[in-house]
Recover the amino acids of this structure.
C-alpha cells in the first residue's frame, strides 16, 4: 500500500523536471504541471474503490509510527486530494492570463498544490508544519507575481501574518513534544491526560495557521491585500485549494487529535466552542465586507471568508449532520469559487476593468459566462438544487438541534446568507443591465467546457445528494470514530511504541 | 487602506489579549495532567533514535551503541544525521523543497538590471580570495561527505560552498549562467526522488534504506545517507548560488 | 559553564534589542550578523554542533550579504536612508 505515496511523487517529479524542461521549451511548465495533476487524479480514482472498503496507512522510510512519518489514506483524505488535484487542473485549464508566465510560476504552483495535498494526507504534526511552510513560501511568491502592482504589498502583509502564525504552530508542536515525547497524531490521539489549560494553549497554537488560511476572524485581515494582488487563477486557488486543505486539517486536528477520549479531553470541546464563536463572527464580518466591497476579486475573497466561517461553525458543532454539511460545503465552495474566479478573470480580461460595477451589460455580450456566474453565486447562497443548499441545511439543522451557543452560530449564518444573497444578486443583475458597453466577442474554447463541468459538479450533488452518499458516510464515520478507525489502522499496521 | 489598518490593530490586540489570558491560565492551572517538559527521556521517541531501536522498540534499554560495530538499524554515527536523513527523511525532503521554493520565488520576482558603478577589487583581495575559496570549498565538501560521522551535512556544507561562490564574485565578478544552476538543482532533486523511489521498489517504502548500513563510524557506512547528503549538498549549493546571482541581478 | 551560557544569552538579548533600535539599516544589518554569530556560539556551547555550523554559514554570512545587496539595489533605485 506504500505505493500511494506516488500521489505526492507525481507533482514532485514535475517540480524537478520543470526547470530543466523550460531551458529547452518555454511552454513546458504549463504542460507538465497539468499532466502531473492529471496523473494524480487518475491514480487517486484508481485507488478510491479499495480505500472506500478500508482505509490504509502509508509508512515512509520503513519506520513504523511513532518513529517514522506516516501518511493516512482514507475516503476523507483521498477524496479531498482528488478534489485538490482536480481544482488545480481546472484552474490551469481556465487560466486565460497564461501568456508570459515563466516556468518558475508553474513550479511554484505545483509545489503549492503538492503541499496542500500533503497537508491533507500526513499523519504527523511536524510533517504538517513542513508542508505548511512549502505551501506558504510558494504562496508568497505567487501572490507577489500577480499582475497588479499591489501584489507586493499584499504579499508582504500575508507573509508577515503567515510567518507569525506558522511560528505559533511550531511553538505548539514544541509544547506537545516536550509534554508527550511524540509527534504522531495517532499516538497522541490516545495519549495520557494533558493539563486542560496547557492542552488548550497547545491546540490553539497548532490551529492558528489553518485559521489564517481559512480566513477566520481575527486572522482574516490579509484577505483584501492578497486577493487584490494575486492574479485570478491564484486567487481562485487560495480559496479553492488552500482553504480546502486548511479545512481538512482543522477537521483532523479538532476531531482526531483532540477527540473526546484523547488526553486533550475537555480542551478539544473548548476549541470547538471557540470555532463556533469565531466562525459565526467570520460569517458576519466576511459577508459584510463583501457586501460593501467594489473590487471584484476582493468581493469574492471576502465571500470565501464567509463560507469558511460556516465550515468552521460546522466543525465546531461536530455532529453527524454538521460534518456531512461541512463536506458538502467544502466541495461546493471549491467548485463555485473556481467558477466565479474564472468568470471574473474572463470579464476583467475582455473589459480591462477590476470593479464589478464597471462591467455593466457585459452579460449581454457573454451570456453563457454571466449565466454560469449566477449559477455559482446561487450555489454559494444555497438555493435548493445546488450542493450548497444541502451543506447549509445540514449545518443549520444540527445547530438548531443542539441549541445553546449553536443558536447564535445559526443566526450568524442566516444573517450572513441574506447579505450574500443581496450582493450576489446585485452583481449578477449588473451583468445583464442595459448599457452602452461595446466589446468585440471573442471565443475561448478552453473556458466554456471546464466551466460547464464545474456547474455540473455544483448541480449534480444538489439534485441527487445520494451520488456523494458513500463518500460522505465513510468520511463522517472516520471522523467521528477516530479510535476504532484512524488510530487502530495506523498503530496496528506496524509496531507500536 | 486606513480602515484596513485599524482592523489589523484590533485583530492583533484581540489575539494578544486572548493569548495572555490562556498563558495566565496555563501558569496558574494546578489540575493534574501533563504540562511542558513532563515527558521523561525514556518516553520520547528520540530515546529510541539514540539507542537505534526504533525498528524494534522492545529491545533492552541498557544497550550501548559503540563505534566499530555493525548490524545497527541505522549506521550513522552522528545521531542528528540519523534522525534528519533516515528516521524523518520526508521532512528533510520537505525542507529541501522549502529552499527550492524560495529560490524559484526569488527567480520569479527579481528583475535584471544594468550595473551602474564599476570598481576593481584591490590586489590584496584578488590574492587572498583564491586561498579562502579553496579552503571554503574543501571544508564544505568535508562537511557534506562526513555528515554521517561528524556535525554538519548537506545543508551547511552546501551553504559554505555557496559562500565560496559569493566571495569569488566579490573579487573577480565572474558569474555562471542561471541555467547551469537550474539544471544542477533539478538533477539533484530528481536524484533525491530517485533514491526515494528506489527505496519504494526494493524495500517497499518511500525513502527506505536499501543499502547495507556497514560498520558504525566508518567512512563508507550508513547506507544511502552519504549519497543523499551529497545530492542535498549539490542542490543547496546551487540554489543558494542562484539566489545570490539573482540578488546581484546583473546582466 | 552555566554562567558562560547565561552571559552569552544576556549578550544575545541586548544585541537583539540593539538591532531593533538602530537608526541606520546598515548598522542594524551588521549588528544582526554579530547576533547571528553569537547565537551560533550559543548553539555550540549547548552541544548542538550541527545547528551551530548551519547558523554560522547561513545566518552570519549569507543573509548579511543578501541584506547588503538588497540595500544596495534599493539605493540604486533611489532609496535614501537619510530622508
Amino acid at each position: 500500500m506504500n505505493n500511494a505515496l506516488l500521489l505526492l511523487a507525481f507533482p514532485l517529479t514535475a517540480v524537478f523536471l520543470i526547470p530543466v524542461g523550460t531551458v529547452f521549451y518555454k511552454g513546458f511548465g504549463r504542460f507538465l504541471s497539468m499532466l502531473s495533476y492529471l496523473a494524480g487524479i487518475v491514480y487517486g480514482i484508481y485507488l478510491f474503490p479499495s480505500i472506500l472498503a478500508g482505509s490504509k496507512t502509508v509508512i515512509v522510510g520503513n519506520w513504523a509510527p511513532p518513529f517514522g512519518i506516516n501518511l493516512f489514506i482514507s475516503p476523507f483524505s483521498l477524496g479531498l486530494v482528488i478534489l485538490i488535484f482536480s481544482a488545480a487542473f481546472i484552474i490551469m485549464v481556465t487560466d486565460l492570463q497564461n501568456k508570459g508566465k515563466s516556468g518558475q510560476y508553474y513550479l511554484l504552483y505545483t509545489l503549492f498544490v503538492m503541499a496542500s495535498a500533503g497537508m491533507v494526507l500526513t499523519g504527523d504534526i511536524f510533517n504538517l508544519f513542513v508542508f505548511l511552510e512549502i505551501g506558504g513560501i510558494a504562496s508568497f511568491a505567487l501572490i507577489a507575481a500577480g499582475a497588479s502592482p499591489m501584489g507586493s504589498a499584499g504579499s508582504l502583509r500575508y507573509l508577515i501574518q503567515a510567518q507569525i502564525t506558522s511560528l505559533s504552530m511550531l511553538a505548539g508542536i514544541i509544547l506537545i513534544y516536550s509534554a508527550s515525547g511524540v509527534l504522531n497524531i495517532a499516538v497522541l490521539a490516545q495519549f495520557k491526560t494533558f493539563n486542560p489549560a496547557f492542552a488548550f494553549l497547545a491546540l490553539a497554537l497548532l490551529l492558528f495557521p489553518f485559521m489564517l488560511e481559512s480566513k477566520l476572524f481575527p486572522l482574516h485581515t490579509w484577505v483584501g491585500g492578497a486577493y487584490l494582488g494575486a492574479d485570478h487563477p491564484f486567487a481562485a486557488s487560495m480559496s479553492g485549494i488552500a482553504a480546502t486543505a486548511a479545512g481538512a486539517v482543522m477537521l483532523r486536528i479538532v476531531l482526531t487529535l483532540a477527540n473526546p477520549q484523547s488526553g486533550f479531553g475537555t480542551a478539544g470541546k473548548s476549541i470547538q466552542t471557540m470555532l463556533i464563536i469565531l466562525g459565526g463572527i467570520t460569517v458576519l464580518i466576511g459577508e459584510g465586507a463583501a457586501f460593501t466591497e467594489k473590487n471584484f476579486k476582493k468581493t469574492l475573497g471576502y465571500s470565501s471568508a464567509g463560507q469558511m466561517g460556516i465550515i468552521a461553525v460546522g466543525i465546531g458543532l461536530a455532529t453527524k449532520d454538521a460534518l456531512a454539511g461541512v463536506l458538502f460545503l467544502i466541495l461546493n465552495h471549491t467548485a463555485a469559487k473556481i467558477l466565479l474566479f474564472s468568470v471574473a478573470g474572463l470579464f476583467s480580461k475582455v473589459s480591462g476593468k477590476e470593479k464589478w460595477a464597471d462591467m455593466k451589460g457585459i452579460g449581454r455580450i457573454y451570456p453563457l459566462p454571466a449565466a454560469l456566474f449566477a449559477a455559482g453565486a446561487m450555489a454559494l447562497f444555497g438555493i435548493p438544487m445546488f450542493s450548497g443548499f444541502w451543506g447549509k441545511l445540514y449545518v443549520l439543522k444540527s445547530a438548531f438541534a443542539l441549541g445553546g451557543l449553536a443558536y447564535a452560530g445559526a443566526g450568524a449564518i442566516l444573517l450572513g446568507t441574506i447579505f450574500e444573497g443581496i450582493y450576489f444578486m446585485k452583481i449578477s443583475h449588473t451583468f445583464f443591465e442595459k448599457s452602452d458597453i461595446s466589446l468585440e466577442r471573442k471565443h475561448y474554447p478552453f473556458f466554456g467546457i471546464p466551466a460547464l463541468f464545474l456547474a455540473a459538479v455544483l448541480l449534480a450533488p444538489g439534485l441527487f445528494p445520494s451520488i456523494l452518499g458513500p463518500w460522505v458516510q465513510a468520511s463522517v464515520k472516520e471522523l467521528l470514530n477516530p479510535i476504532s478507525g484512524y488510530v487502530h489502522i495506523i498503530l496496528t499496521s506496524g509496531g507500536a511504541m | 487602506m486606513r480602515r484596513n489598518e485599524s482592523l489589523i490593530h484590533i485583530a492583533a490586540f484581540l489575539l494578544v489579549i486572548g493569548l495572555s489570558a490562556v498563558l495566565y491560565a496555563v501558569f496558574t492551572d494546578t489540575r493534574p495532567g501533563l504540562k511542558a517538559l513532563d515527558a521523561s527521556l525514556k518516553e520520547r521517541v528520540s530515546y529510541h533514535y539514540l539507542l537505534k531501536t526504533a525498528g524494534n522498540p522492545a529491545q533492552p534499554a541498557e544497550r550501548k551503541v559503540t563505534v566499530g560495530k555493525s548490524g545497527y538499524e541505522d549506521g550513522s554515527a552522528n545521531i542528528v544525521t540519523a534522525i534528519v536523513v533516515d528516521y524523518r527523511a520526508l521532512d528533510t525532503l520537505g525542507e529541501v523543497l522549502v529552499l527550492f521554493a524560495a529560490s524559484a520565488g526569488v527567480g520569479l520576482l527579481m528583475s535584471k538590471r544594468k550595473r551602474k558603478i564599476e570598481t576593481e577589487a584591490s590586489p590584496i583581495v584578488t590574492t587572498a580570495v583564491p586561498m579562502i575559496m579553496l579552503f571554503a570549498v574543501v571544508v564544505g565538501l568535508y562537511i557534506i561527505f562526513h555528515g554521517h560521522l561528524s556535525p554538519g551535512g548537506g545543508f551547511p556544507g552546501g551553504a559554505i560552498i555557496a559562500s565560496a561562490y559569493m566571495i569569488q564574485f566579490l573579487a573577480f565578478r565572474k558569474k555562471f549562467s542561471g541555467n547551469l544552476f537550474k539544471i544542477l538543482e533539478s538533477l539533484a532533486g530528481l536524484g533525491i526522488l530517485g533514491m526515494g523511489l528506489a527505496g519504494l521498489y526494493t524495500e517497499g517504502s518511500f525513502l527506505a534504506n536499501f543499502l547495507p548500513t556497514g560498520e558504525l563510524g566508518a567512512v563508507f557506512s550508513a547506507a544511502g545517507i552519504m549519497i543523499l547528503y551529497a545530492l542535498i549538498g549539490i542542490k543547496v549549493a546551487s540554489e543558494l548560488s542562484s539566489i545570490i546571482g539573482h540578488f546581484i541581478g546583473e546582466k | 559553564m552555566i554562567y558562560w551560557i547565561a552571559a552569552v544569552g544576556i549578550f544575545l538579548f541586548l544585541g537583539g534589542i540593539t538591532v531593533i533600535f538602530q537608526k541606520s539599516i546598515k548598522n542594524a544589518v551588521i549588528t544582526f550578523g554579530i547576533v547571528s554569530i553569537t547565537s551560533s556560539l550559543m548553539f555550540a556551547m549547548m552541544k548542538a554542533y550541527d545547528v551551530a555550523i548551519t547558523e554560522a554559514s547561513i545566518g552570519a554570512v549569507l543573509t548579511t550579504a543578501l541584506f547588503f545587496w538588497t540595500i544596495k539595489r534599493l539605493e540604486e533605485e533611489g532609496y535614501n536612508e537619510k530622508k
Summary: The two ends of chain B are 37 Å apart (CA to CA). The first helix of chain B runs from residue 2 to 28.
